[in-house]
Amino acid sequence: MTLRLRPVSREEHLAFIASRPSASHMQVPSWGEVKPDWRAESLGWFEEGGDRPAGVGLVLFRPLPKLKRYLAYLPEGPVIDWHAPDLDRWLAPLLAYLKSRGAFSVKMGPPVVVRRWSADAVKAAIADPGARRLGDVPATEHEPGADGIADRLRRMGWQQSEPGGEDGFAAGQPRYVFQVPLAGRTLDDIQRGLNQQWRRNVKKAEKAGVKVVQGGYDDLPAFYTLYTETAARDRFIPRPLPYFQRMWTALTAEDPDRMRLYLAHHDGEVLAAATMLTVGTHVWYSYGASTGRRREVQPNNAIQWRMLTDAHAMGAAVYDLRGITDTLEDTNHLLGLLRFKVGTGGHAVEYLGEWDFPLNRLLHKALELYMSRR
After folding, report:
1. What pLDDT digit, counting tens, does each position of 18-43 carry?
2. In this structure, are 12 and 96 located in the same domain?
3. How far apart are CA 19 and CA 93, in angstroms?
4. Where are the alpha helices (DSSP H) in 56-165?
C-alpha cells in the first residue's frame, strides 16, 4: 500500500514529534527559522485513509544562484520508520515530491545508529599507536539492521556522502558523536561513570567557588565573546551573534525548554558558557565556549556536570555531546576534545551518515565539485 506525502502544518508536525520518544532538534519546525538562507517546509507521510501523519520531515531548500533549482536537505531526518522492510514506500514519494518542487539533489541523514564503543574501548584505542581511526577499531556493540538499511538505500540509488571537513567531521552533520546514557541510572550511577580526572575537576570547581547559572537572551553576547575566543583557539570559523539570537528566539517560542544557556561564573567573570537543546527524551550539548583564563578552576567540567544533572532531572534518556573526531593520531588537534568527552563515561556512537540522491546528475556533480573546493 502506497504512502501519500503532502505538506503539513506546524501543529501537525509538532504533534507527531510529541508522540515519539524523541527526534533530532534539526527535524522540528522551528529549526527552519534558524536557517534564513534556506526555505523550510514540513512534510508528512499518510497511510491510505489516515488523517494523522505516520512520519514527518523538515526539508530545507537551498537555491542555486540564478537558477530556480534547489538542494533539498533533511538534516538528521526524516522521522520515519527506518527499519521498515519496504523503505522505498517512504522514500519514493519523497523524491517525487521534491523533484516536483525543483530539487536537483536530495541530501538526508538517517537517524540510524550503526555501532557503539564504550569509553574504555575509545580510551584504549587512543592509547594504541596502531589505531589510526575509530571506525577501524572493533566496536563494543553493533546495532542489528543498520547494514541492511544501508544496502536497501544503495539499491534504491542513494549514495553515501564522502566524509567532508577534516578529522572525520562531515561537512553536514557529524557521523560520530559521544553520548551519555541516562535512562535507568541514578545521578550517583552517572557520577561514578565519570573518570577519576572528571570527578576531581568537578570537585575542584565546586571548592573554587565556580557557580553555574542558567542565562537568557540577554546573556548571549557574553556567551558569544567566549565563543569567538574558542573559535580562534580551536581553529574554526565562528557563526555570527545573530545566528544564536535567532536560534534562541525561534526555539524557545516553540517550546520554552527547547534551548537553554548555561554560564559558569567565578569571581564576577564568566569563564565558560554552553547551549543545551532538548526534544523529548534526548538532550544535546550544542555549542560550548570558554576562555583560556583561570582554567585551573575547571569551569568546563562544572558546566557539563550541571547540564548532565539537569538533563537527568528532566527525565532525559540520553545526554548527547555531539560530534567527535574519528582520527586518533596524536597530531590531531581535536583529540583533546575527544578525551574530554570520553571522561564522561558514555560511549562513542556511529550513525549511518549522510546520503545523497542526484535528481539531476549534472547539477549534482557541479555541487560536489564546488563543495570539494571550499
Report:
1. 999 999 999 999 999 999 889 999 99
2. yes
3. 23
4. 88-100, 119-127, 146-156
In this model, does residue 258 exceed pLDDT 90?
yes
CA distance 30 to 11: 11
- What count of residues does the chain have? 374
pLDDT of residue 364 exceeding 90, the answer is no
* Amino acid letter, residue 189: D
The count of other CB atoms within 10 Å of the CB of residue 89 is: 15
The candidate with the shortest Cα–Cα distance to 261, out of 293, 297, 221, 321, is 221
In a domain, 222, yes or no: yes
Mean pLDDT of the region 196-202:
97
Range of the domain at 53: 4-109+354-373
313 and 181 both lie in a single domain: yes
CA distance 162 to 169: 11
In the block, which residue shows the cell 577501524? Answer: 136
SS3 content of the chain, % helix, strand, coil (to 5): 40, 25, 35
Are both 99 and 119 inside the same structural domain? no
CA angle 323, 325, 329 (to 5 degrees): 165
Q: Which is it for strands 159-160 and 141-142: parallel, antiparallel or unpaired?
A: unpaired
Q: Are 57 and 277 in contact (CB under 8 A)?
A: no
Contact by Cβ (8 Å): 318, 183: yes
**What is this structure's pTM?**
0.94
Higher pLDDT, 292 or 17: 17
Query: What DSSP designation does 218 have?
Result: G
Buried b (16+ CB within 10 A) or exposed e, 91-101: bebbbebbeee
Same domain, 216 and 332: yes
